[in-house]
Design a protein that fits this description.
heterotrimer, A alpha+beta (385), B mainly alpha (125), C mainly alpha (398), A: 385 residues, alpha+beta, Cytochrome-c3 Hydrogenase, chain B, B: mainly alpha, Methane Monooxygenase Hydroxylase, Chain G, domain 1, 62% helix
């Protein structure tokens, strides 16, 4: 395993500070039930308390960026699905946005609406699953996870009928979307969106006030505002620390300025806030979806100037970013006028949010580590690329 | 004829049956493995599990003393509980005076607990 | 008629023994009882594994096992063949022992675990005249034997020479040791009331009926508190969710039996469930009237049937709990044991004494009630309030 840095085995004191016992170095992962994929944490424990933690990633490295530099612009689109495989549609959107900036394409209104609807549906299912995974990491043998997956299934069914795939949607195109909504899709989406508040209520009623859940998450893994900003944390994790920064409000990309929604902010920055901010965000997402589903009108779904074959954007560079469910997802592209990007770089929110893991975990118990990791919300496809 | 007439015999036989209950299936599994799936041990398969990595350092270490503190408190309380049992058995035949002495005894238990509590022993560091 | 049915196993045994020479009768009598205990509870174990998977699946909107049934046919019987399939799988799986492990201790740990678990059934009255050994110190025997399981858990964890196993074993010891005291203290309240350590006498003390309700100890304030304390400790002693920290699947993978495979793993599984039945059975004996029917007009149902009905009900409740709550953390677990369970159990003893000295009537109920609710509010709510745990309100930015 040459790409994985080995942990130096004896470069710290093996005796604990108070001298009552030896330290224990444990590799948690890659083959571990709750590292959300092939992720590894080299943890040093004093009893049960974490005194050192080193995240080690790269197990799922697939050379995504270099491969994309050797592929046509469109050829990378299905490959972006595999970044954060929970949210392929937002990945598509971020990439399409960058290319559209580069090529100067205009997205028709209907396509913008479809993008908002699919992206917000993606956010709903991502947050639902995250809540399930998080409580699963706390040891709630599967029940919340299955409840969350029940909701996710409905949304994935919608994706399937729209794009033909449940997870690897490959739906967006430069300047619009691949295909128009099938007949009756909007009604189906409206039904799913109408059912979601009930699910969120149920989830909140069952879990948000649960004493064990509160004891396991409140004041656990607290992150200060300053640390969050300095470590360039984005997404719900940043907002849980109390920073009002949501790209849908800041950049107003797409047509987000047309929708009324609020941004929930936490005050403590701990695991409970990260959990609750996502719950509240789901409620806001439902509001956006209701407005978008009501406001969508007929029209073309792709910019007529957009070329599928022989697509060569003019020389230049562009950075397209969106508020993905996990944070700021950005694509940085440099075009040399050829059919494939000269430089292609992803700003993965999972990876950057993960960098503060040690700061959050130090001094906590080993049981908290998995909960904190769960609340960071990572997908290894995106972390390792 | 009743098993209660021979309590020691019964417990001895139950213990032996328990051993047999554990060992017979293990023996069957061993026979099966011998006949149909002989062991093919190798250093990787029989390595200590540590999430797919080679285990570094030893697991047999001097572990944190926190656990032992609890063990010591347990010892005190467990012994005191044993003292409580004969008291409890004869409680119905005793009067209020005995009850008060029971209360004193309980108070001693509780003061021990309170001491440990105030000392911070019960708080996991 | 109902009496014949009630005593059917006892009479059957006596009838069988009548055909045997006198010298062999004690041994055969013992062996027959042992066979009945092992077969009955092993069957219950098989059914419970199925019930648990099915129940958890229902809680989680799944089907659970529904394929395995009668082999070579299409009859699936709601997946009831699953326990047999699991057993065969466990028997035929390769038994992997890590090279680093202490092989002898590693081998003996599961065997040692089964012995105390089965021994504890010796004093459990599962029906009228259906207790294997009516010991004067039955309860003491039960607790003494039950404490021996900790030894085996530590043997398993330490001999595996695995860091996760070590953590699991340490957690298991700390947890089982801590919850043993409230477990014993909550049963001491029953002993004070009955004045005997004999499980049979304890059941007898709850045989009468008082109006609609039976005179079970759970229907007194101190008994109710004792029962709840007992069941919480029992959950912790049998390492069941939300106290499954020694296994802690999401944290320390499988805890102390992480290096076990094949039938040794199955033995851990089996012993855990048998231990759960034993401790639930003791809870029934102490607080739920043992094998007595809940209503006088239901006494025609055999006593052993009542015992198993109550046992399965308790097991179902444990499955329900497992399907609904997250796991505690180590420090919270220990705090809960020492700062809540232990003081509550001690105060409960005072409650029993006062209940005993007061004359029956409403004042006794009020005082008994106050002695349970007061400490609960003080300790439970008070400790919670000190932790600043609460639902929060959130700000919204436009």
């Amino acid at each position: 395993m040459s790409i994985v840095a080995e942990m130096p085995s004896k470069n710290f004191e093996l005796l604990s500070k108070d001298g009552d016992g030896e330290l224990l170095e444990i590799a948690m992962g890659p083959h571990h039930p709750s590292t959300h994929g092939v992720f590894r944490m080299d943890v040093v424990l004093d009893g049960e308390r974490v005194v050192k933690l080193k995240p080690v990633f790269g197990y799922l490295h697939r050379n995504h960026e270099k491969i994309a530099e050797g592929t046509t612009y469109l050829g990378s689109m299905p490959y972006t699905d595999r970044l954060d495989y929970f949210c392929s549609l937002t990945n598509n959107w971020a990439y399409a946005l960058a290319v559209e900036k580069l090529a100067g394409l205009q997205v028709p209104e209907r396509a913008e609406y479809i993008r908002v609807i699919t992206a917000e549906l993606t956010r709903l299912q991502n947050h639902a699953c995250l809540m399930g995974f998080l409580v699963q990491d706390m040891g709630a043998s599967g029940t919340p996870l299955m409840y969350a997956f029940r909701e996710r299934e409905k949304i994935l069914d919608l994706f399937e009928s729209l794009t033909g795939a449940r997870m690897m949607c490959n739906y967006m195109r430069f300047g619009g979307c691949r295909c128009d909504l099938p007949a009756g899709w909007l009604d189906g989406a409206k039904k799913v969106v109408a059912e979601t508040p009930r699910f969120i209520d149920e989830f909140e009623a069952l879990l948000a006030g649960n004493e064990i859940l509160m004891a396991r998450t409140q004041n656990v893994g607290a992150m200060s505002r300053e640390l969050a900003i300095n470590a360039s944390i984005t997404g719900p994790m940043l907002r849980a620390a109390g920073v009002n920064y949501d790209l849908r409000k800041v950049d107003r990309y797409g047509i987000y300025d047309r929708f009324q929604f609020k941004v929930p902010l936490g005050d403590h920055g701990d695991t409970y806030d990260r959990y609750m901010v996502r719950v509240l965000e789901m409620r806001e997402t439902v509001k956006i979806l209701e407005q978008a589903l009501a406001g969508i009108s007929d029209g073309p779904i792709i910019d007529p100037k957009a070329k599928l074959r022989g697509f060569r954007p003019k020389v230049g560079e562009a950075y397209g970013r969106i508020e993905a469910p996990k944070g700021e997802l950005g694509f940085y592209l440099i075009s040399d006028g050829g059919p494939n990007p000269y430089r292609y770089r992803v700003r993965p929110p999972s990876l950057i949010n993960l960098t503060v893991l040690e700061d959050l975990c130090l001094g906590q118990l080993v049981a908290d580590v998995v909960v904190i990791l769960g609340s960071v919300d990572i997908v290894l496809g995106e972390v390792d690329r | 004829m009743n098993t209660s007439d021979h309590p020691y015999l019964f417990i001895l036989l139950l213990g032996l049956s328990a051993v047999a209950f554990a060992l017979i299936p293990l023996g069957l599994a061993w026979l099966w493995a011998k006949k149909y799936s002989p062991k093919k041990e190798n250093a990787i398969k029989n390595a200590t599990y540590e999430c797919g990595l080679e285990s570094k350092g030893d697991a047999w270490i001097q572990f944190k003393s926190e656990y032992y503190l609890y063990a010591i408190i347990f010892l005190i309380f467990d012994v005191e509980t044993i003292f409580l049992l004969p008291f409890a058995v004869s409680f119905t035949g005793l009067g209020v005076g005995a009850f008060i002495s029971l209360m004193v005894f309980l108070f001693l238990l509780v003061s021990g607990l309170a001491w440990a509590w105030l000392k911070g022993v019960l708080t996991w560091k | 008629m109902s009496d014949t049915f009630d005593q059917i196993f006892v009479s059957l045994k006596h009838w069988l023994l009548g055909y045997l020479p006198v010298w062999s009768q004690p041994v055969i009598s013992c062996l027959l009882s042992i066979a009945v205990i092992i077969v009955a509870f092993a069957t219950l174990f098989a059914i419970t594994t199925w019930l648990e998977r099915k129940g958890l699946a229902r809680i989680q909107n799944r089907y659970g096992p529904n394929r395995a049934g009668i082999p070579l046919t299409n009859i699936s019987l709601f997946g009831l063949g699953q326990p047999a399939a699991d057993g065969i799988k466990a028997l035929t799986k390769e038994d992997i022992v890590p090279f680093a492990a202490d092989k002898l201790v590693h081998f003996f740990a599961p065997v040692v675990l089964v012995i105390p678990v089965l021994l504890s059934y010796a004093v459990l009255p599962i029906g009228r005249n259906m207790v294997a050994v009516d010991m004067d110190a039955g309860l003491l025997f039960f607790f003494a034997v039950g404490a021996a399981t900790e030894l085996s858990v530590f043997m398993a964890g330490w001999s595996s020479r695995n860091k996760y196993a070590l953590l699991g074993a340490m957690r298991a010891i700390a947890q089982m040791v801590s919850y043993e005291i409230p477990l014993i203290l909550s049963s001491v309240s029953v002993i004070m009331m009955v004045g005997s350590l004999s499980t049979v006498k304890i059941v007898e003390a709850q045989s009468t009926y008082h109006g609609l309700l039976p005179d079970w100890f759970v229907f007194t304030p101190w008994g109710f508190a004792g029962f709840i304390l007992f069941m919480i400790s029992a959950l912790a002693e049998s390492n069941r969710s939300p106290f499954d920290l020694p296994e802690g699947e999401s944290e320390i993978v499988a805890g102390y039996f992480i290096e076990y495979s094949g039938f040794k793993f199955a033995l851990f599984f089996l012993a855990e469930y048998l231990g759960m039945f034993a401790i639930s059975g003791l809870g029934i004996t102490l607080f739920l009237g043992g094998w007595h029917a809940p209503f006088a007009w239901l006494t025609w149902i055999p006593s052993w049937a009542w015992f198993f009905i109550k046992l399965v009900t308790l097991v179902l409740i444990l499955i329900w709990i497992r399907g609904t709550v997250p796991r505690l953390r180590m420090d919270q677990l220990m705090n809960f044991a020492w700062k809540f369970m232990l003081p509550m159990a001690l105060l409960n003893l005072v409650g029993v004494a006062i209940w005993h000295f007061m004359t029956p009537g409403l004042p006794r109920w009020l005082v008994g009630f106050a002695l349970v609710v007061g400490p609960y509010l003080l300790l439970g709510r008070g400790l919670m309030a000190g932790k600043n745990l609460a639902k929060r309100t959130y700000r919204f930015a436009e």
